[in-house]
From TrEMBL:
It is a multi-pass membrane protein. It is found in: Membrane. The chain crosses the membrane at residues 39-57, 63-83, 120-142, 148-166, 178-199, 261-282, 318-343, 363-384, 390-414, 435-458, 470-489. Gene3D superfamilies: Amino acid/polyamine transporter I. Keywords: Amino-acid transport, Membrane, Transmembrane, Transmembrane helix, Transport. Signal peptide: none annotated. Residues 1-24 are annotated as: Disordered. InterPro entries: AA-permease/SLC12A_dom, Amino_acid_permease_CS, APC_YAT. It comes from Basidiobolus ranarum. This is Amino acid permease/ SLC12A domain-containing protein.
């Protein structure tokens, strides 16, 4: 594909001022072509994935139907507060790859540097995971074709969708997400009809909520263990902040997307888990067997089991196609988020300068290719050495995602304090986060609990393996090294509230 690289010019570029270097730096602009419907579906695409279609069954098996509902409901409330915090900042200061920019302006340039590279790392490893999972999914239909061939094909498709234009990415993600939404809605409706005895020939009612240890299995410990899984499932909902810099009307579109997040979580996760609990007892062995790394996992997906109970014979093939779409969506979003984050880091002199280049279609092409190259190398590590390196990267990305969430909440806490300290009025904010400061403080506390809670469950495992503990915290260790390394080299300090930079980007 032939790309034309645009020269930097003052007339069509934004100027980003970084506190700490005190330099004005022209940068190539990204076009604002994402509409409200794109942002809404991108946010949905970030939250609906294999965590719902496969891992939800395992969650019910661990904590019972009631425990799973409590865990997912609790993390959903936290995510709602987190997204309102991000919405307030992204609406006032819309910029692609916003986390590191906010961290540099309102906390410390070193914090923004570490936060940006941490988030890029999370998504590049996620892309590798999706490439690996895609080969497993396709093997369901074509078991004799080498797995890496399908992973390569999926990577080419994802790169192609992101190379067309930002509008091309938005449209593809819109339809990917629409397939997932339709699947969940149909499952909930059919599941309720099956539980009521209208379909399937048997009435289940609430009987599965009262058998054995149900509705709560393993007590509080079971709820906490699923709380960790639920948090990993919801990662990606922060995509609304990444898309802010390319939204056609951020002051209108971002608040609309943020306000819908809570109801989406309620519908897609809470209702789905509730229906699964109605249909399948928590002690059904099949709930423990659903795993995206198992070529037979689709047959054990609680969604597949529910459709089969309704008499839908081709359910495994249907769900396999849906989950393949989910993987395409996750990889598509991953390339978009990581490339934009890397592009902003380059514009703030926190990444190699050549990554700033933008094509005539508004694509940060070198940042995109660099991201895909790193993801490809990570994926290839799964083919050698008994997957040791690959498994370490995979384990660390989940906890590193909570570091990014913590950064969002902490950035907002500092943002609002600085905003008021400088005499600005809350009425000047296009969108205000509700329940401040309770919201960001709760989100920070929850993220810390999840980050260190993961260590507790690893330590209490028998036999204890220190390599598992280290693998899960590679991302956290990397964040700390990046933070203090940048701080020492550039001698940065905590930005005083009165010096926090609120200069707004030119929103076209």
């Amino acid at each position: 594909m032939d790309y034309e690289l645009r020269p930097v010019s003052k007339t069509d570029n934004e100027v980003e001022v970084e506190k700490g270097s005190l330099t004005e730096q022209p940068q190539e602009a990204l076009p604002r072509h994402l509409k409200a419907r794109h942002l809404s579906m991108i946010t949905i695409g970030g939250t609906i994935g294999t965590g719902l279609f496969l891992a939800s069954g395992n969650s019910i098996a661990q904590a019972g139907p009631g425990g799973a509902l409590v865990a997912y409901g609790s993390i959903g409330i936290m995510v709602y507060f987190l997204m309102t915090s991000l919405g307030e900042m992204a609406t006032y200061m819309p910029v692609s790859g916003s986390f590191n920019t906010y961290g540099s302006r309102f906390v410390d340039p070193a914090f923004g540097f570490a936060l940006g590279w941490n988030y890029w790392y999370v998504w590049t490893t996620t892309i590798a995971v999706e490439l690996s999972a895609s080969s497993v999914i396709v093997r369901f239909w074509l078991p004799n074709v080498p797995s890496f061939i399908w992973s390569l094909i999926i990577l080419v498709i994802i790169m192609g969708l992101n190379c067309i234009s930002v509008k091309g990415y938005g449209e593809s993600e819109y339809w990917f997400s629409m397939i997932k939404v339709i699947t969940v809605v149909i499952f909930v409706i059919i599941g309720i009809l099956v539980a009521a005895g209208v379909l399937g020939g048997k009435t289940y009612g609430f009987s599965n909520y009262t058998i054995g240890e149900a509705p709560f299995r393993n007590g509080f410990g079971g709820v906490v263990s699923v709380f960790l899984v639920a948090g990993f499932s919801f990662q990606g909902s922060e995509m609304v902040g990444i898309t802010a810099g390319e939204s056609s009307n951020p002051e209108k579109n971002i608040p609309k997307a943020v306000k819908q997040i809570f109801w989406r979580i309620l519908l897609f996760y809470i209702l789905s888990i509730f229906v699964i609990g109605l249909l399948i007892p928590y002690n059904d062995p099949k709930l423990m067997e659903a795993n995206e790394n198992d070529p037979n996992a689709i047959a054990q997906s609680p969604f597949t089991l529910g459709f089969e109970m309704a008499g839908l014979g081709p359910a495994p093939s249907i769900m396999n196609a849906v989950i393949l779409t989910t993987i395409l969506s996750a990889g598509n979003s991953g390339v978009y988020a990581a490339s934009r984050t890397l592009w902003v880091l380059a514009n703030e002199k926190k990444a190699p300068r050549f990554l700033r280049k933008v094509t005539k279609n508004g694509i940060p092409i070198y940042a995109l290719l660099f991201t895909c190259g790193f993801s490809c190398i990570t994926f290839l590590s799964s083919l050698f050495g008994d997957k040791v390196v690959y498994n370490w990267l995979l384990s660390s990305s989940g906890v590193a995602g909570f570091v990014a969430w913590f950064g969002i909440a902490f950035n907002h806490w500092r943002f609002r304090r600085a905003f008021l300290a400088q005499g600005k009025k809350l009425s000047d904010l296009p969108y205000r986060a509700k329940f401040y400061p309770f919201g960001p403080i709760l989100a920070c506390v929850c993220c810390i609990i999840v980050i260190f809670g993961q260590a507790y469950f690893i330590i209490t495992q028998h036999p204890f393996q220190w390599t598992n503990l280290l693998a899960n915290y590679i991302g956290v260790i990397g964040f700390i090294i990046l933070f203090f390394g940048y701080k020492i080299v550039h001698k940065t300090k905590l930005v005083p509230l009165m010096e926090c930079d609120f200069s707004r980007l030119n929103v076209q």
